[in-house]
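Summary for the funding panel

The consortium committed to producing paired sequence-structure records for every protein in the target list. Below we show the first two records in order, beginning with the earlier of the two.
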Amino acid sequence: MSCLVYHSKNYLAAFLATTLLYSFTYSVVAQDKAKGVDISTYKVKLALSTLPKNIDKVNSVSKIKYNYSQASLKISPQGTHGLLLSYLNSEGLPVNNAQIESDTAETSNQKLAYIAPVTKVPTVDKKLWDKQVRAKYKNGLILTVSPGVKHIAIRKYTKAGPMFINVVEVNTALNPNIKIKPALAGVTLPHTKRIQNIVKENDAIAGVNASFFKPSSGVPLGTLVINEELITGPIYDRVTLGIKDNEFRMARISLQGRVITSNGQDIKIDNVNQPRMLAAYNIIYSDKWGKLAPITPQYGLQVAIENGKIINISKDRLEIPANGYVMVGPEKQLGKLKISDPVKIIFSSSPDWTDIKQAISGGPYLVRDGQVYVDVQDQKFGSITGRNPRTAVGYTYDNRLIMVTIDGRQKGSVGATLNELARIMREFGCYNAMNLDGGSSTQMIVRGKIVNHPLNSGGNYVSNGLIVKLEN
């Protein structure tokens, strides 16, 4: 948008220029007011001619009293070739300023100037959040666990029977020390523990059980990223929660990997630290898997790579190097490799989550883009739609994390179907949400104590959890 100011010796020209600027900006502001867009984020281009010498006396006519976000816009002279835009609150005090600096470029003797974009810092209002939580969970017992973290216990009555629901809602904007991340039961994958122990060992203030896992080994099933390290790859491209600096994303993730040799060989990698689904797959196993790679499939081969160089090739199980990995796949492909060959590994994901620091898989979706969306068949889940104990995670449009457990298969709580769980997550304000491992795995810990009623006394042994902790 632009405004042409003609040279004049009287105040009328300045007044007309201001009116013209207002006429250009009004329509944009009017269109975006409903969207919650702050006009100060716009890059405004002004074409300025030489301002009147006595422009400093034009303040009274250059004030635009347009109420936007409880602020009015004031235009004042600043220096020889600049203007100062100020946003004033109801008391006339400035709440935001943007300096217009004249550019050196000139067109038809008109100097160009710009308003640099100003990022509006969101208002963090603890009292407002408290009010919103009370309104959302009207019949719940609400406990403040820590600034920005609340635990809510709810008794909900349905036609099918009562439900006992526990919620942990996290507002990271209120506490910069909050960190949300997955946590494993052990240093390597083949371990299981109660969530209570996982939370305690990580010095966390809250946590729930998280992804599905292979009961016989404890290996998590699906995408898992901890502190930017890819621990396990996806299965059936199932939905995953991604975390970047306490900002959340949710999507179905696919992984693309390749091992490239110095002589130009290019070998596809199908997964990382996951149980084998097809004999034709090439799978990489890091030291997170354990000491040894799994048994070689029929007509298969194992290749150990350390510090970017092949150190061993065998049909037998190989030891996994601390600074490398073992690739296991068909001899038809891996047989072309030779000891001492330098190799490099390349991974990418769809969508591109290269900046994600933490990720945990689940499934199916419960809420997608604000709508109930339960895609059981698409994500190749079996008979999990019935009424069971449930664990779920989601986040609101304004980036508040919500973790939920619903007890089931007991007198005081009948559990929930996936569709019921989806409606509950949307009712709690989730813009995106997904199901996590449930049944006997469902557990929630707050301040070191189990707050739900697991089917097994003390809680089931699980592979991993999603925890909330405080880090200075």
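The next record, for a separate protein in the list, is shown here:
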Amino acid sequence: MESAAQINDVILDRGHLSRMTLGNRGLQQEVLALFDRQAEILLVRMRKSDGAGVGALAHTLKGSAAGIGAAEVARAAELTEHAAKGSAGECSAAIDRLADAVEKARALIAELLSEAET
């Protein structure tokens, strides 16, 4: 059975984040806050875009997610990028799956940022 820490590391690889930010906790918090805002904005835009727009936005989110160690979001964004070339139904379903992955990441990010404030 996986521990909460192991599950959280699947959502956000904190070791990767630490390496990318050279262990600077302030920078980690700043990067997480930026990702949190960006992910929210990109999802809203995806829901209003056509296939080409969704593909480009998903590509952007994929890179950002990979950069902070949010592999689940990065993979869902990659799948959305590919689904954007398909039917509207496929694209919409992929955006919904991406939104679920983003929601998990954002919940963990909110928890981490809240812990940092205390």
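Regarding this second record: Residues 4-113 form a domain with the Four Helix Bundle (Hemerythrin (Met), subunit A) fold (CATH 1.20.120.160). The first helix runs from residue 4 to 11.
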